Amino acid sequence: MTLKVGKDRVVKFEYVLALDTGDVVDSSEGREPLAYLHGYGNIIPGLERQMEGMEVGEEKEIVVEPEEAYGPYIEGQVIQVPIQEFPEGLKPEVGMGIMVETADGRQIPYFITQITDDGMVYMDPNHPLAGQRLHFKVKVVEVREATEEEKAHGHVHEGGHHH
Ligand code: ZN
Fold it and tell me: Which residue stretches of the chain have pLDDT < 70?
């Protein structure tokens, strides 16, 4: 009997992630397949929903709209911070995520999108893939029942390490 992808099962899969433009932005190629516990929101909702019922060895192309991925892109939130205002030892780089404290004391991650030659750092609270339709190619390589401990924690315990 082979298990299908479903709730309370640990799924290992290979994937390639591309945008509408065809640009590949992430892939499991050259790495271990990604393992996750299905049904606990450990991967983006649109991917989890459309992988439901897949079998080991099955390949599928899955398109996920922004609403079921990293959300819509919300304009008008980019902030500019002079590079001198960054703490000693923190070298800002494009793509880096930085926790920023808001006026009401919450910590929100901002992503550095641009650093100008005259030292202005542009930071955006939108996820780098916000507003993007995602095109996954996935292949399921393993499905097993989760352990009681994994279900209690809501995530996979793979290869003995714990995060
Ligand atoms: Zn755990």
Answer: 1, 159-163
Q: What is the pLDDT of residue 72?
A: 96
**How far, in Å, is the centroid of ligand 1 from the Cα of 106?**
27
CA of 158 to the centre of ligand 1 (A): 10
Residues with CB under 5 A from ligand 1 (ion): 153
Asked if 33 and 106 sit in the same domain, the reply is no
The pLDDT value given to residue 159? 67
Ligand 1 centre to CA of 101 (Å) is 29
Contacts of 143 (CB under 8 A, 6+ apart): 2, 3, 4, 5, 9, 10, 11, 12, 55, 56
Q: How far is the CA of 77 from the centre of ligand 1 (A)?
A: 35
Q: What is the pTM of this model?
A: 0.83
Expressed as residue numbers, the domain containing 83 is 79-124
Mark whether 66 and 28 lie in a shared domain: yes
